[in-house]
Amino acid sequence: MYGTLEETEDRFSETSDDDERNLFYVALTRAKREAVITLAERGADGREQLPSQFLGELRPELTVREDAEIYEKSFEAQKGIAFAAPEATVPLLEDKEFLNRLFLDHGLSVSALNNYLSCPWKYFFTNLIRIPEAANKYAMFGSAIHDALKNYFMRFLEGEKKDAAYLVRRFRESLYRQPIDEKDFEEMFLKGAKALEGYYAAHAEAWGINKFSVEWGIDGIFLNDRIKINGRLDKVELLDDAPHVKVIDYKTGKPKSRNEIEGKTKASDGNYKRQLVFYHLLLNKFEGGKYKMTSGEISFVEPDERGKYHSEVFEITPEEISALQDQVLAVSDEILNLSFWDKRCDDPKCEYCDLRQKMRS
């Protein structure tokens, strides 16, 4: 039935305030020019159904009754198409070329690699086309901790050895610049201040024994004529037998066991260990192998339940480096060929795969 809604408005406004009638009126007035009202003659149980009483209250001159049989026959003929599973989508050549250029320009960092191994669509949205995401309070906390340590060690390199209070002040300033609400700010600040004071007490005596560099960015390291990798290392210590170095990576959150770091436990993804191997691969190829990474350290800035601080040191084997390089090249090939285009990851609740599904609809 069709009706001009402007002409029926007065009719409905004169009726009672019955909830159902009001809902019917609101539904009709959502349309701008006309509304189509459909009803089934029989329900799912086969019983005959009566039309709503409100249909009879519409002014006859404002409605047009139509036979739905023509639409039913058309639907029946095309039902197989309407309910068919979606066909695999093939990206346009122009899109593939554009995405390839993005990948080859960006290169692959270890965080991007870990994201891809977790979910290709997480990598796609986060690292390739780089859709902005709102950081949660824990991510902002980790960022502020890293900023505070970076600032502290930069001053150290300038000849100023600061105390724990300075480290906490730098943390507070960095956290204050984050888009965090007042309640979360107080929670995160108290947590971070306590952690940094303890971390300073546990490690400060050893700081400065070796020369070091902080936030060392390495970019444009080519594994072949196309594929490049890059990274930013939290801290690199130059050992006595230079050019040998040790890479230190700071982590917030609950300390992990050695087996967890290496990916040997059921719930572990091995991302932390992969990160150290990746840094080794970077340094091996930096300026023709100018530096030799002898070990990598995962240093947890927060203590365990007993207040103890943990660090785990690993020596990286040639076999691990070779295996990671092969993995990087294999993943790069999948990205360039868009082999993941019609796949989902193993997480049925993955928000990135859901976003990809919305792109297809």
Describe this structure in words.
With 361 residues, this protein is an alpha+beta fold. It folds into 2 domains: 5-82, no CATH class; 106-354, Lambda Exonuclease, Chain A (Alpha-Beta Complex). Helix content is 47%, strand content 12%. It has a 5-stranded mixed beta sheet, with helices on both faces. A hairpin with a 5-residue loop joins β2 (228-238) and β3. α4 (93-106) runs antiparallel to α12 (318-337), α5 runs antiparallel to α6 (120-128) and α11 (271-285) packs across α12.
Concise overview:
With 361 residues, the chain is α+β, with helices and mostly antiparallel strands. Helices cover 47% and strands 12% of the residues. The protein has helices at residues 5-13, 19-28, 69-82, 93-106, 110-118, 120-128, 137-157, 164-176, 182-203, 258-261, 271-285, 318-337, 351-360; strands at residues 211-222, 228-238, 244-251, 292-300, 311-314.
Strand order of the largest sheet: 1-2-3-4-5
Strand fraction band? 5-15%
User: Runs with pLDDT <50, length 5+?
Assistant: 1-9, 11-16
The CATH first-level class of the largest domain comes to: Alpha Beta
From the helix content, strand content and strand pairing, which structural class follows?
alpha+beta
Radius of gyration: 31 Å
| Terminal CA distance | 30 Å
What's the main sheet like? 5 strands, mixed
What form results from the Cα inertia axes? elongated
The SSE order reads HHHHHHHHHEEEHHEEHH
Number of strands: 5
> Can you give the helix content as a percent range?
40-55%
